[in-house]
Amino acid sequence: MAQSRVWHPFTQHALEPSIPEIVLTEGAYLHKADGSRILDAISSWWVVTHGHRHPRIMKAIETTASNLDQIIFAGFTHEPAERLAEALVGLAPAGLDRVFYSDSGSTSIEVALKMALGYFRNIGAPRSRIVVMEHSYHGDTIGAMSVGARGVFNAAYEPLLFEVDTIPFPAAGREQETLDRFEALSRDRRAAALIVEPLVLGAGGMLMYPAWVLTELKRITEAAGTLLIADEVMTGWGRTGTMFACEQASVSPDILCTSKGLTGGTIPLAATIATDAIFQAHYSEDRKKTFFHSSSYTANPIACAAALANVEIWHDEPVADRIAALSERQAAGLRRFRDNPRFTDCRTTGTIAALDLRTGSAGYLAEIGPKLRAFFLERGLLVRPLGNVLYLLPPYCITGNELDGLYDAIEEAGERFG
Ligand code: PLP
Fold first, then answer.
1. Which of 16, 129, 135, 260 maximizes the CB count within 10 A of its CB?
2. Is 105 assigned to a binding site?
């Protein structure tokens, strides 16, 4: 291909001069122009759930596009958005019943933060502090970076970020420290919201914590009148074994953010789902209480139709059984690494499996990351380690044999680099 003018995300072009071109996606595979194929073990950045190009979603996209393209969503509505909102309220934890659409995980977080502050302002008791969990990642826009861990991803933009209060990650055996810190922070009742990735912190290193911690965090938010924002952008749509991770903690957050798997991973769409109390705080004849947020493509009808088809797949196909089988395979697959001295912290939650390669250097910028990525790509496998953290987050259509091939490759990587 002629020299590209494209600037890729999270890519150091000086170190990645050649970027493979994909010409076809199908099931669990990406096909290259030269006819070879790559097993997508990370669901193309955690978005693809049923497999690439599920026919039912593709059909919904085609059918809708023959009638609707884009409609201004302020002052107008359309059937795909209405039906999808109804479906999402049915699927989300109890009490969440107003759906605000946007286009990416990051914007769903911005919307959630604005809703939380707007809520307190509109009820006449302004609060402005946001409490966040250590090692979190919520996206790359300014607000989402502000509530995420500070580090290499956002160091250059630090002056733009707002101050937050941080609770420690509830590492095994130290969960009480997290709860105590949050309890202490909650005493002055200045916290508008606690934002968390439920059960699994993704880009922070696939760090996992038990459901009871989330249950306790929710209890503390309730006592302090603080809102709980659940960032289910990565964990939603079955990744952790249940539709939403919050379910495992029997927690209904005040605001839930979803994107990625919302359209089965086909086209961009996000939703921030809030309680009626938050909606009612904005519902007023006073125009100053309006929720002042929009993006041009809010609730794109084609994207909403894709998401509706995704919901129908959940309804009509044995998706829950596939997830249960994949979760079991992942747990069994990781067992073989437990006694392997080249790895530590083998862990799974639902369909997500992760383990750390023992190396001299850890962290996102560890040299080992790109080397491992290249090692897997040479074997036709898309695995994109977070520094020395190897993880598999595959689409639910992946087969047992394909998973075994991935575990074999991870074992080989351990021998080569561990
Ligand atoms: N929140 C979480 C937990 C994520 O994992 C991500 C992306 O990986 C985001 C938010 C941001 O989503 P997007 O990349 O669609 O903006």
1. 260
2. yes
